[in-house]
Specification:
The structure is a homodimer.
Chain A: H1 4-23, E1 28-31, H2 34-41, E2 46-52, E3 58-63, E4 72-74, H3 80-87, E5 95-97, H4 105-114, E6 119-121, H5 124-133, H6 137-155, H7 167-180, E7 199-203, E8 239-245, E9 247-248, E10 253-254, E11 257-262, H8 267-286, H9 293-306, E12 322-326, E13 333-338, E14 350-353, E15 356-359, E16 363-366, E17 369-373, E18 378-380, E19 389-390
Parallel strand pairs in A: 1-5, 3-4, 5-6, 11-19
Antiparallel strand pairs in A: 1-2, 2-3, 7-8, 8-11, 9-10, 12-13, 12-14, 14-17, 15-16, 17-18
């Protein structure tokens, strides 16, 4: 099923999971979420990955037909997993973790019954999210590849603008540009409440419209069924446009926002943009393994306060309560850079830092980049020009 | 918060839910899923809609700020729902339904505890899906609007093709066309395993690649993280291209597939396409309120068998086991047109019918249209040309 390289990669991922399972005295975890199946097998399939502390991973597959491997078992219903474990004389787990934060209640209960009399715990999501927060060199290579494509496509954005365009018209061109550069389109989010299409193109007053979603920025969107992002307003002189477009070029996403301007902007917009760059610089200096992400958030908020722009920091009418977030297979992984976050940076973590400001009647300013935590500090993976770039 | 029109629409939706709740002797349902919140309020928000048999709907909102109404209650955490129910002296439910097929296990348990000592049941998803299967005139108007935009945009597809294009290049142009016609982009699916970007553009041999998803058609996709749809193959002479692109123009989706050809096709491709049209015609004649959807599936499968093309029916290497599905806010609503389906057509149901065939080394043929169940039969909502249209 896989190249030798990927077999050893899977082995190292499995070891990380086993270490985490041992810490909580669990014998196995059953993964079912698409993001986790992709992590544990290198491809999305419909089924389950049974990952025991002792023994091999078993892949229970419903679809697609045609996967091969002596640890690939085709099933029609989940109850067949129990038959197969017995047939293979796999030791029955005493304690099994399930993905309690993504598996629906009814499906969880059905799975828990299948593994009776095991003690079944719903802390599997928390465990796998902790593991996935620290990327392997293989994953980092995919993130670098996404970052490179993301950068290249962003450099071409200004050329897409034509006078009189609405925010959505500009967005359609950027979406196509992204796809032409290899963007897979799909924007994977964790959590049942998050929805977005390919990303946000926010200009002028619309940037100050609160949205239901826990993204850094809002916008009214085109319809109440998806109230976020561009809303069809003409981009006007004296306004900014922030482009925060999907960086999923490899199955691993980078996050990148840049601001463009039409005509002259008021001084306060330029000032707030500079504060965003200062925050990034300060955090780049502080961030290294062992640093609490809450400290990074505090530094960002303090800087905004000291510079007199806290009213606009991370939104205006509605504020996001974080300044950064882990990213990888999903856009909202661990760690979270927030005031109440308990997480500490580790080497191999990858996070997006997005100190942003919404200036009423002007639009959003600030930047977003994706950073890798290295042994000594952080490395910026997305590197295109950070200035406010004129569209005219 | 709403126009008078929409208040009466919400009232009629609520009445349908109350009727369904009474049938199972439940006192209330708590809705939290985005599709259901949109159904129950006319907009997506982050929070909960508490829908009791007796008394008014209460909207518990976490985000966005700014919603107004004397039944809108802002909360920071779900436990505040209980405080508010007590404050308003709302009768405590004896039996409460939760969305057991979409609420994650851990969140479900937290909500169940909040409503203790109520008996909490996980059958809320099944109930609301039954209710949503029968559309109101207001919803049907939105589906008609989506169908009209969907048709208009499909008529322009052949002009987008340029010689030598790959399937993905063709797809990027169709995606932009859809967006320019008002497509919201987001493709809402029910169930944790379903993922797709904007739709499928499948040509030639790639159409026979099995996918992990329960869509009618497969395709390898561009990456193992989203193994479905176009895979970057050049569209060759003698091949077909099936376009099955997102029809979400209003929050309510229509489903529509058409086939295009490059050069001459073998006779078996034309024959299978004609069988698809015959199946549609037969089902149009049979379908009316009271007819079992399993009978419609059986008729489709029998026709394919009688015409000698059952090997290619609904896929070849991997087959889909349905020939149609309900559609509305999500692409996979009730009823399902499948062999084991227990559902019976009712006036107001809307379903996509997609008798499709995959001809190895040629590609997919067949069609898909969206139908409304009327008092006497069915009405086809999507009406663009059903012939195989040449790209050259």
């Amino acid at each position: 099923m896989y190249t030798a390289d990927f077999v050893s990669e899977l082995q190292s991922r499995k070891e990380k999971i086993v270490t985490a399972l041992r810490k909580v005295s669990a014998d196995a975890i059953l993964l079912t979420d698409n993001a986790n199946l992709y992590y544990m097998s290198g491809r999305v399939f419909c089924g389950y990955a049974y990952v025991p502390v002792e023994g091999r991973i078993l892949y229970f597959v419903r679809r697609p037909v045609g996967l091969r491997g002596d640890n690939v078992v085709y099933i029609r219903k989940p109850e067949q997993m129990a038959e197969e474990l017995r047939r293979r004389e796999v030791p029955w787990p005493s304690t099994l973790l399930l993905e309690g934060d993504s598996l629906p209640f009814n499906e969880y209960n059905r799975l828990a019954e299948i593994f009776a009399p095991a003690q079944v715990l719903g802390s599997g999501t928390a465990l796998i999210r902790q593991v996935r927060a620290v990327k392997t060199p293989y994953e980092i290579a995919l993130l670098r590849k996404s970052a490179a494509s993301h950068d290249t496509m962003y450099r071409r954005i200004p050329k897409l603008y034509k006078e009189g365009m609405t925010d959505v018209e500009f967005s359609f061109e950027i979406e196509r540009l992204a796809r032409q550069h290899g963007c897979l389109g799909i924007f994977r989010t964790f959590g049942r409440s998050m929805e977005i299409f390919m990303g946000n193109v926010l200009s002028g007053e619309n940037a100050d419209t609160p949205s239901p979603y826990d993204f850094a920025m809002g916008g009214a969107g085109l319809d109440n069924s998806l109230p976020v992002g561009a809303n069809g307003s003409v981009i006007r002189r004296g306004e900014t446009v922030m482009v925060d477009m999907n960086g999923n070029f490899t199955g691993y996403m980078t996050d990148l926002s840049r601001v463009f301007s039409l005509g002259q902007l008021p001084a306060e917009a330029h000032h707030a943009h500079q504060v965003s760059l200062s925050i990034q610089q300060a955090i780049q200096r502080m961030a290294r393994p062992g640093v609490a992400t809450a400290e990074l958030y505090a530094k960002a908020a303090e800087t905004a306060e000291a510079e007199g722009v806290s009213d606009f920091f991370m939104g205006h009418r509605q504020k996001a309560h974080f300044v950064g977030h882990g990213i990888g297979i999903e856009v909202n992984e661990l760690p979270v850079l927030a005031l109440r976050s308990k997480e500490v940076l580790e080497e191999g973590m990858v996070f997006a830092l997005e100190p942003k400001f919404v200036i009423p009647s002007v639009g959003p300013v600030g930047i977003e980049n994706t950073f890798l935590v290295t042994a000594e500090g952080v490395e910026k993976l997305t590197t295109c020009d950070e200035a406010i770039l004129p569209l005219d």
